[in-house]
Specification:
InterPro entries: Homeodomain-like_sf, HTH_TetR, Tet_transcr_reg_TetR-rel_C_sf, YxaF_TetR_C. By secondary structure, the protein is mainly alpha-helical. The protein has helices at about 1-10, 20-25, 30-35, 40-55, 60-65, 70-85, 95-105, 105-130, 135-160, 165-180. It has one domain (about 1-180): Tetracycline Repressor, domain 2. The N and C termini lie far apart (about 45 Å).
Length: about 180
């Protein structure tokens, strides 16, 4: 049920997903939601966001261990976003964005979104530090990467076109080249 909720959040946003829909999508009895998730929809969503973000962060995890250069790392991160968008025919977006847009007034959900953004930022900053950036510069570059990709993914989904992701990749690469 958590996996169904995670997928549905990425496709429909938080407000587009109900407990009955989750149970039906997971082919599970609706009563099991109350049994396994006594905290209701909030509990399901809190568990689902962690799963959805883990699925979405494949490129960042790969870049952290496999990249031989910082440009390779950035390409891997951007490529994973491009792949998710294209493979889903632009129907899937960042699950954290859904939390922020749909339920930022619900503190436990907003706080979880903030925690996940911070975790992701730390991961990207660690990649930049690995390639010689100091702590402050790495932290700043990480938020630039995240903000750029989040915005580009939104534009790409609206246009059903990968141009925004490609432009972000080019600009990030140009930035690395000019700072070298």
């Amino acid at each position: 049920m958590v996996r169904s909720a995670a997928r549905m959040i990425r496709e429909r946003g938080v407000t587009g997903v109900g407990l009955r829909q989750i149970a039906a999508d997971a082919d599970g009895p609706r009563g099991s939601l109350q049994r396994y998730f006594p905290g209701g929809k909030t509990q399901v969503l809190l568990e689902a966001i962690d799963l959805a973000v883990d699925d979405f962060a494949v490129g960042t995890r790969a870049a952290a261990v496999e990249a031989e250069t910082l440009p390779d790392a950035v390409r891997m991160i951007v490529s994973s976003w491009r792949e998710v968008l294209v493979d889903s025919d632009f129907s899937v977006g960042c699950p954290i964005a859904s939390f922020v847009v749909d339920v930022s007034s619900v503190d436990p959900l907003r706080e979880r979104a903030d925690e996940r953004f911070t975790h992701w930022r730390k991961g990207i900053a660690a990649i930049y530090r690995r390639f010689g950036y100091d702590r402050t510069a790495a932290w700043d570059e990480a938020i630039l990467v995240i903000s750029s990709l989040e915005g580009a993914a939104l534009v790409a989904r609206a246009a059903r076109d990968i141009e925004a992701i490609d432009a972000v990749e080019k600009l990030l690469m140009d930035r690395l080249t000019s700072s070298a």
